């Protein structure tokens, strides 16, 4: 019988990253080794207060990007200045786990990020102190699934990577091994900052 399909990033994690993380941090137990738990994609649709179709358009774009139907997020409270009432749809989000998470991660790192205009690497300081990483994308058209001619508006989105790492250093190393393009920190830039 043929082997079951395994996403490329999952195979890289099991074959290379586990060994590299164990060597660097000296884990005694396999369950101590950090792993990516989930990836949450969030797209806010501010103009949804005037036009309800915008949320449906954003939902269909998010479904193409994630490969999974998104949840429509609703306003928690009313804000008069934004003409927003409690319960109004204001965005879409999707939580990716297991195989879909690894497949999205592969497309995000190898296809989407290189297509970002004036890309200089991801900000290495965008960790939350508990080993989770968040970054924003200004245009959803960097994903090849989105047809530029069919979109009504260029929208940004948030990508939140939740890991089981106990510290930001462990999470940074985990994501670096996955191929996240963080700028290389060297002693010369640290010396310039200190001076």
Report on the structure:
The protein has 195 residues and is α+β, with helices and mostly antiparallel strands. The chain has a single domain (8-47, 58-70, 92-180), classed as 2-Layer Sandwich (50s Ribosomal Protein L5, Chain: A). The chain is 34% helix and 17% strand. The chain contains five helices and five strands; from the N terminus they run αβαββαββαα. It has helices spanning 8-25, 53-66, 98-112, 168-178, 187-194, and strands spanning 36-44, 71-74, 89-96, 133-137, 157-163. Strands 2-3-1-5-4 form a five-stranded antiparallel beta sheet. Helix 1 (8-25) packs across helix 4. The longest helix has 18 residues, at 8-25. The termini are far apart. The model has no long low-confidence stretch (mean pLDDT 77).
Q: What is the strand and helix layout of this fold?
A:
Layout: H1 8-25, E1 36-44, H2 53-66, E2 71-74, E3 89-96, H3 98-112, E4 133-137, E5 157-163, H4 168-178, H5 187-194
Antiparallel strand pairs: 1-3, 1-5, 2-3, 4-5
Can you tell me the CATH architecture?
2-Layer Sandwich
CATH superfamily annotation: Ribosomal protein L5
Low-confidence segments: none
Structural class from helices and strands?
A: alpha+beta
Highest CATH level, the class: Alpha Beta
Sum up the overall morphology in one term.
globular
Helix content: 25-40%
Number of domains: 1
Widest sheet, order of strands: 2-3-1-5-4
Q: What is the fold-level CATH name, i.e. the topology? A: 50s Ribosomal Protein L5, Chain: A
* Major beta sheet summary: 5 strands, antiparallel
């Amino acid at each position: 019988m043929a082997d079951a399909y395994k996403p490329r990033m999952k195979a890289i994690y099991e074959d290379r990253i586990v060994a590299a993380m164990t060597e660097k941090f000296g884990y005694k137990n396999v369950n101590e080794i950090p792993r990516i738990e989930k990836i949450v994609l969030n797209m806010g649709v501010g103009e949804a207060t005037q036009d309800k179709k915008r949320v449906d358009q954003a939902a269909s774009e998010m479904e193409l990007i994630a490969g999974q139907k998104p949840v429509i997020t609703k306003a928690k409270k009313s804000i008069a200045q934004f003409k927003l009432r409690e319960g109004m749809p204001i965005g879409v989000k999707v939580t990716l786990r297991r195989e879909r998470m690894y497949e999205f991660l592969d497309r995000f790192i190898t296809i989407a990020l290189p297509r970002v205009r004036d890309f200089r690497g991801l900000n290495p300081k965008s960790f939350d102190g508990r080993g989770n990483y968040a970054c924003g994308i200004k245009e959803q058209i960097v994903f090849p699934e989105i047809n530029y001619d069919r979109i009504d508006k260029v929208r940004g989105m948030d990508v939140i990577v939740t890991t089981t790492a106990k510290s930001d250093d462990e999470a940074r190393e985990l994501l670096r091994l996955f191929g996240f393009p963080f700028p290389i920190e060297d002693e010369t830039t640290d010396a310039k900052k200190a001076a």
